[in-house]
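Work Package 3 (structural annotation) set out to generate three-dimensional models for the target panel prioritized at the project kickoff. During this period the team completed the workflow that converts sequence records into C-alpha cells, so that structures can be stored uniformly alongside our sequence database. As a representative example, we reproduce one entry of 330 residues exactly as it appears in the project archive.
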Amino acid sequence: MRVVFAGTPEFAAVALRALLVVPRDVALEVVAVYTQPDRPAGRGMKLTASAVKQVASAHGLPVLQPPTLRTPEAQAELAALAPDVMLVAAYGLILPQSVLDIPRLGCLNIHASLLPRWRGAAPIHRAILAGDTESGVAIMQMEAGLDTGPVLAERRTAIAARETTGQLHDRIAALGAEAAVDVLRRLARGESLVATNQPVEGVTYAHKITPEEAQIDWSASAVEIDRKIRAFNPVPGAWTTWRGEKLKLWASELVHVPSCLGGEPGTVLASTPAGVAGARAPSQLLVSCAGSVLAVTEAQRAGGRRMPVSAWLTGNDHPNPGERFGLSGD
C-alpha cells in the first residue's frame, strides 16, 4: 500500500519513525513526505528543517514542501504519486476537498484528543487548561470540516495531576503513532474498518494558543494559574512581569496556606531560601491569588536560564515579601 505522509513538528515525526520500522512482511511503502517549508529558528534565525523533514531525509525519502496544496500544480504532483492513503499529523496546511479525494482510501489524521472534545489546533494545551482528567488520540477519516470526520481508532490515557503539556504531548504522540500504524497495517491486509461518526454532543474547540494568553492573571485562583503554568510548559511559557521585566514561570505547587495572610493578587507573601527556619523544603516563594496562595517552584528571568526557585532565592536579586508580580493588563 502506497502511503504519503504529511506532518511537521516532533509530534508527527514520532508517527513517521514508527511507520518506517513496520516489518517488511507488511505491504506499507512511504512513497513521499510532505512538510512545511523550512523556517527561521533559534537566536541566529537560521533556516531550519522541520522535525519530519529531518527524519525523512535521514531515511532517503522524497520530501515535498509546497507552501499550499490549493494550486492545480501541487495537486497534480500529489496525484502523480498514486497514493493509496495519506496519513496526516500536525501538518499545518488546510487540505481542500480536491486533495482529500486524491488517495484511493482518503486521508487519515492523527488528532491529539478524544473527539469531539478539543477539535482544532491546540488540544493538549486546552485539555490541561480545562483540568481534564483524561485525554488520548483519535485516528480520523478527514473531511473538509475542522476535525469532524468519523473515527477509525482511538487510544485513551489519564492526565496526571501534575502533568505538563510537554509530558502529555510525548505520551499522546507515542499512542498516536501506535494507533496509526495499526490502522494502516489493517488496511494493507485488506481489512474493512468501521468508522464511527462523532457524537453531536460534547463538541469543544481547541483554539490556537497565543503568547498574550500565556500571561498570568493573578486575580485568578491558584488552581487556574497552576494549570496555566503546566499547560504552557514548554511552549509558549506562562509569564508575568516583575520589576518591569518579563518573568516566565515553569513550575508551581498548590499549597494549603491561609489566604488571610493578605495582599493583593500577585503579592509575594514569602520568599524564604532553603535552610531558613520555618521554610518549606527546598524553599518557598508564595504568591497571593484569588482567595488562595500559589508556590512558584521554577522561574526564568528575561535573558536568563530556567532555574529552581531555591537557586533564585539564594542570590542577591530576588522577589521580597510585599512586592507584586504584574496583573493581566499591567
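The chain has two domains: 2-206, 212-313.
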